[in-house]
Amino acid sequence: MIHYIVISYINIMNNINKLETIVDEKKIENVLSRGIEAIFPNKDFLKSRLLKGERLTLYLGVDPTGPTLHLGHAIPLKKLGEFQKLGHQIILLIGDFTAMIGDPSDKTAARKKLTKEQVLENCKEYKKQAESFISFDGENPALLKFNSEWLAKMNFGDVLELASLMTVDQMMKRDMFARREEENKPIYIHEFMYPLMQGYDSVAMDVDVEIGGNDQTFNMLTGRDFMKTIKNKEKFVIATKLLTDSSGKKMGKTEGNMVSLDQSPEEIFGKVMSWSDNLILPGLEIATNISLEEIEDIKKSLDSGSNPKEAKVKLAKEIVSMVHDLESSETAHQSFEKAFSKGEIPDDIKEISTPVGFLIRDLLVKEGIVSSNGDWKRLIEGNAITIVDSDEIIKDLSLKSEKNLTIRIGKKRFVKIIIK
Questions:
Q1: Which one of 95, 152, 193, 377 is most buried, counting C-beta atoms within 10 A?
Q2: Continuous H helices in 37-70
C-alpha cells in the first residue's frame, strides 16, 4: 500500500513537472499589470521569463492572526490563482510560526503574541476559504505549507547567522519603526526577527516569486536579498495594490472594516454597499474579473455624473460571486433591494462601535436609542426590531453583539452596530 502511494505521488509530480505554461503575451501582460503596485526588480524581466515558457514557483504567505481570511487576503490570492491558470506552481504558505511573533508592518505598537494553539485554531478554515481563488486539485494543484516546518527547527546559531545578513540601519528605515522611535514608543527585538523569518521562507521553499500586498514589500524584499546571498538566485517580488478606505487606511480586521470570507452573501453584499463611492473603481480593478474596458466605461459614466449605486451594486455582486457563487450574489442583491430600495435607510445612519459579546439592549439604552430595558422588551415583544440584511425579526431579549449588523427599530429608525 505504501509502495503504491509513493509511486502515485511520483507519477503526480512527474505529470506536474511536464505541464506547459501559457505564453500568451496578452494574458501575461494582464496578470502583471492589473491590480499591481510594483514588481521587483522590474516587470519586463519577469515578463521575459514568463514568455520563455519557464515554469515558476510562486507563493503567498498568510499569518493566521485571526479566525478567517478577508478581502485583503483575497486580492493576492486572486493574483496567485491567475498564475496557477497560466500553468505555474503556486504555494499557499500558512505562517503558523511567524504568526506567533506577529508582523509589525503598519503597526504603531507591538502585536500581542499568540500561542501555537491559538494560531492553529485560527487557520482551520483557511484552506477551504482559499479554494474560492486557487485550486488544490487537478493537473496543477496548489501546495499548502506551514513555515513551522523549517523555522521551528532552527537553532540559535542559525538565527544568528540569519541576523548577520541585515543591519539595524536597514530595519530602522521601515516606516513603522521610524514612527515609533519619533513617538518614543518601544520597539522590541523580536519584531526585528519577523522580516528575517519571512525572508527565510523564500530560501526554505526555493521559490522564484513572492506575491503579497504592497504593505509587505519590505518583508518580501528581505526574502529577495536572502535568495541572492544564500542561493545566488533571482527572486521576483509582486506587490499588489491595497484596497484602502476613505481615510487611506487599508481595509482589514485591524481597522474594523473588513469583508470576511466566512460572512454570508447578504453580509458581504451589504458591507460592500456601505463603502464610500471612491472605492468603486479600485474595487472593480483589484477585487473582480470585470474587464478593464468595462471598468473604463463605468469610470466615464461616473465622471459624467451618473448615480454610483448601479456601479456599486455591480461591485458587490462580483465580490459575492467570487467568494460564494453567482446564485448567492443574485439572492443577496434581491435581499438588499428589499430592505433598501424604498430609501428608508438614511445616509447618516447611527453607528455604534462595540467589542464582541455586549448586550444589544445595553448598547441601545446607553446611546439613548431605546429609553429603557422595559422599552426594549416592549419592542421585542411587538416584533418591532429586525435585522435589515436578513429581514429577521429579533426575538431574543438577551441578543449579544457577535458580528456587524444593521437593525431597524419600527419603520424609520436604523442603527448600524460595528464590532471593533
A1: 95
A2: 43-51
Domain of residue 359, residue span = 350-419
Give the CATH number for residue 404: 3.10.290.10
The position carrying cell 538566485 is 233
The phi, psi pair for 291, rounded to 5°, reads: -60, 150
On whether residue 252 sits in a domain, the answer given is no
Helix axes 309-323, 280-287, angle to 10 degrees: 30
Query: Whole-prediction pTM value?
Result: 0.76
The answer as to whether 345 is a domain residue is no
Query: Do 127 and 11 lie in a common domain?
Result: yes
Looking at residue 207, what DSSP letter applies? -
Per-residue pLDDT at 346 exceeds 80: no
- Whether residue 171 is predicted with pLDDT greater than 90 in this model: the reply is no
Give the residue-averaged pLDDT of 367-371. Answer: 84
Domain match, 312 and 354 both: no
pLDDT digits (tens, 9 = 90+) for 115-140: 999 999 999 999 999 999 999 999 99
- Sheet containing strand 350-354, edge to edge, reads 350-354, 413-419, 405-409, 385-387, 392-393
Q: 96 and 128 share a domain?
A: yes
